[in-house]
Amino acid sequence: MSLHTKMARLGDSTFSTMEKVNSELLAMTYGALVTTLIKDFQDVKVVNTELEKMGYNIGVRLIDEFLAKTGVTQCRNLKETAHSIAKIGFKMFLGINAEVTWGADARQFSIEFKGNPLIEFVELPEKFKNLDYSNLLCGVIRGALHMVQMVVTTELRKSELKGDPVSEIYVTLKQHLAEKFKGEDD
Prior knowledge:
- The protein is α+β, with helices and mostly antiparallel strands and 186 residues long.
- Helices cover 49% and strands 16% of the residues.
- It has helices at 3-17, 23-41, 44-70, 78-94, 135-147, and strands spanning 98-102, 108-113, 150-158, 167-176.
- A four-stranded antiparallel β-sheet has the order 1-2-4-3, with helices on one face.
- It is globular and about 50 Å long.
């Protein structure tokens, strides 16, 4: 059985054991959050940044639940990491399937997905066309990977909300951080 298939099965089995939240409630609550940010900051660029920062803080905490519930201990390389995010993480936390495509550089990949539950019931007015409504997901990925010693940049490149056939998050690995352990004598 291929690694891809194993991860997809792990994602399905983990999703089946997760406590579920109504997707409509999630979409409406997230929509209220984004609306509040727009009212508070009145600048789409600032809102995009704030959504990413919020996502980062969520990702820093979410990785613990991911590791505890999946039994994944360590990915051997970026390819395994990318597939873990797409096949297990997206299924486990959002209930959707995602695919990985690779960039020109082996340190870059995209996660493509359809059916983003955050964008249910949402229509962006023309004046908010530059709003990266699902930028929270970019931050979640960046925060989770930072906790496993990977510094990445993330970018929401496509969105079904803006008329694209799929949503796409582009991830670039900037560096692996070395784990530092205190010696027993310290």
